Amino acid sequence: MEDYIYLDNNATTKFAPEVLQAMIPYLSEYYGNASSAHGFGKEISNAVKVAREHVPN
Q1: What is the pTM of this model?
Q2: In a domain, 1, yes or no
Q3: How many Cα atoms are found within 13 Å in the side-chain-facing hemisphere of 39?
Q4: Does residue 44 form part of some domain?
Q5: What angle do CA 47, 50, 52 make, to 5 degrees?
Q6: What is the pLDDT of residues 4-55, one digit of tens each?
Q7: Distances from the Cα of 47 to the Cα of 2, 5, 10, 22, angstroms
Q8: Residue 1 above 70 pLDDT?
Q9: How many domains does the chain have?
């Protein structure tokens, strides 16, 4: 791949390696709608809540 500078991070941004590792289960196994009231959705909603607690303000 050629060297280049990517300036369109508004559209998409490369994941940091640690973020990618944390997201893999939610991109492959746990993919429920966090807004749904069923158990699958509640599980994802809880995961989002926990993730937000780890993001600095």
Answers
A1: 0.65
A2: no
A3: 0
A4: yes
A5: 110
A6: 887 888 878 888 899 899 999 988 998 889 999 898 889 999 999 999 998 8
A7: 38, 34, 25, 11
A8: no
A9: 1
Residue with tokens 């973020």: 19
3-state secondary structure 31-56: CCCCCCCCHHHHHHHHHHHHHHHCCC
Distance between CA atoms of 40 and 17, rounded to whole angstroms? 27
What letter represents residue 10's amino acid? N
Q: Is residue 3 part of a domain?
A: no
* Residue 35 burial (CB count, 10 A): 9
- 33: in domain: yes
Task: Note down the domain range covering 47.
Answer: 18-53
